[in-house]
Design the sequence.
């Protein structure tokens, strides 16, 4: 049977009533489509739900540390906030991006049945990310002058720099954690990650209170707690992998981890560039807004909007992980039509959720600013920006999904070029032009940058719509074979 005549759902994933519906597909396509849409939605939420929970828990580790630091004093709060957002934020973006190469490789290898190679890929990623972490250590060591160049005061730069030195262990936890997570995600073991992250978050709250407030260790207590929490996540995930062998995906340490590193480095760098360009794009908004005349009010208003956008982004990142796994798994298994169908289902689902969030923002724009500020001037500026926030929330519901499709299919390098063009050649200059030259202020800056997101989203929709999924399935098979698939049969 040719691939073009395959059922939309492959029979090894179906049982009982599902097989009967697939067999009736030719006589009742409408019923079959509705049933299949429901089953694909179920698979999507089984991945996205735990992934969203995991992301929120890990995002909350740094946020809670900042909250406890704020109970000590303003300088301590500033030190933790700056280190988390600038120094650790830089490292997080690079590590997450480079680790995302495994979403392509592990997902496609799992779909192709090459389970042993998942462990090999994870080890190769460890080698690359631990090396990258060593390269990033000077950023932590020399963070005070870096922060001074970024416009921070000497007092805040020195305090944040000292905290950054204590947070170097977290950098290496990132290097271990992201390959592990992609390894587990590819096998759909997302509940394991969710339980571990949730449990560590509970412990993090207790030990933050104990070390920071009760024992009065201050910033040292904050660093100790945050480092321990991240390494506890890594250790517990490793214990699970080593004990269960992850259904055969882990067969122990191997010298194969040091083979084909060049290809891994290329894909890892492409992944890092793609995600970092997205990760940093909206962060630049606040930096540019700070260059406006009398920037205090617009910066505060922008920060409130970015806070709300950041929490909504946790949902989008969950869908990003889910569709990356679905696409890579199905392409690796040669199920081109099911990979395409997964893209349709997740795109529709995330867009509906984004539209709902957009409506909530617009409906509450007269009220939500007062949850964050007592300043009437800041609240009024936030209300003005609420319309742009609403459109950003809508666009950011679909854009990460399309990026997840790109990662699952292995298009990182292509999307990196698209991001450079749309974000930094179109969106950023347009924002500067509107904000400064046309005196539209924060709304102009944000409006121009939304234009970049909109253009990127349109291009990714076009690319996804025109994709030859049969060809992508063939490329996935070639990729698995090229980067070690044959070794799995040795």
Sequence:
């Amino acid at each position: 049977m040719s691939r073009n005549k395959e059922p939309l759902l492959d029979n090894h994933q179906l049982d009982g009533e599902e097989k009967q519906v697939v067999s009736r597909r030719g006589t009742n396509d409408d019923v079959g489509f509705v049933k299949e849409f429901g089953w694909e939605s179920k698979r999507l939420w089984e991945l996205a739900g735990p992934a969203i929970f995991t992301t929120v828990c890990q995002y909350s580790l740094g946020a809670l540390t900042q909250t406890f630091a704020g109970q000590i004093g303003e300088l301590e709060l500033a030190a933790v906030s700056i280190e988390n957002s600038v120094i650790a934020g830089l490292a997080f973006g690079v590590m997450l991006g480079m680790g995302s190469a495994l979403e392509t490789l592990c997902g496609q290898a799992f779909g192709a049945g090459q389970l042993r190679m998942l462990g090999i890929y994870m080890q190769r990623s460890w080698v690359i990310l631990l090396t990258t972490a060593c390269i990033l250590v000077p950023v932590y060591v020399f963070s005070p002058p870096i922060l001074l160049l970024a416009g921070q005061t000497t007092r805040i730069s020195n305090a944040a720099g000292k905290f950054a030195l204590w947070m170097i262990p977290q950098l290496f936890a990132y290097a271990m954690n992201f390959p592990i997570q992609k390894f587990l995600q590819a096998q759909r073991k997302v509940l394991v990650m969710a339980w571990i992250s949730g449990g560590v978050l509970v412990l993090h709250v207790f030990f933050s209170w104990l070390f920071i407030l009760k024992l009065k260790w201050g910033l040292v207590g904050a660093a100790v707690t945050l480092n321990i929490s991240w390494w506890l996540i890594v250790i517990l995930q490793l214990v699970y992998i080593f004990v269960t062998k992850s259904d055969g995906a882990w067969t122990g340490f191997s010298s194969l981890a040091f083979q084909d590193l060049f290809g891994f480095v290329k894909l890892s760098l492409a992944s890092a560039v793609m995600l970092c360009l997205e990760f940093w794009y909206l962060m630049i908004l606040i930096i540019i807004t700070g260059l406006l005349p009398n920037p205090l009010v617009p910066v505060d208003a922008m920060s409130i909007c970015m806070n709300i956008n950041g929490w909504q982004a946790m949902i989008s990142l969950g869908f990003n992980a889910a569709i990356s796994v679905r696409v890579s798994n199905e392409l690796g298994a040669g199920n081109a039509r099911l990979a395409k169908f997964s893209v349709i289902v997740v795109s529709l689902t995330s867009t509906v959720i984004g539209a709902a969030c957009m409506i909530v923002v617009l409906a509450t724009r007269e009220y939500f600013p007062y949850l964050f500020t007592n300043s009437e001037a800041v609240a009024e500026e936030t209300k003005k920006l609420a319309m742009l926030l609403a459109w950003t929330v809508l666009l950011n519901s679909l854009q990460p999904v399309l990026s997840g499709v790109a990662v699952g299919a292995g298009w990182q390098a292509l999307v990196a070029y698209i991001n450079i063009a749309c974000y930094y050649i179109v969106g950023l200059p347009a924002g500067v032009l509107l904000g400064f030259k046309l005196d539209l202020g924060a709304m102009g800056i944000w409006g121009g940058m939304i234009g970049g997101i909109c253009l990127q989203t349109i291009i990714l929709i076009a690319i996804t719509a025109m994709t030859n999924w049969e060809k992508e399935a063939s490329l996935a098979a070639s990729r698995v074979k090229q980067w070690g698939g044959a070794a799995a049969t040795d």
Remarks:
- The first helix runs from residue 17 to 23.
- The CA atoms of residues 111 and 333 lie 4 Å apart.
- The chain has a mean pLDDT of 81.
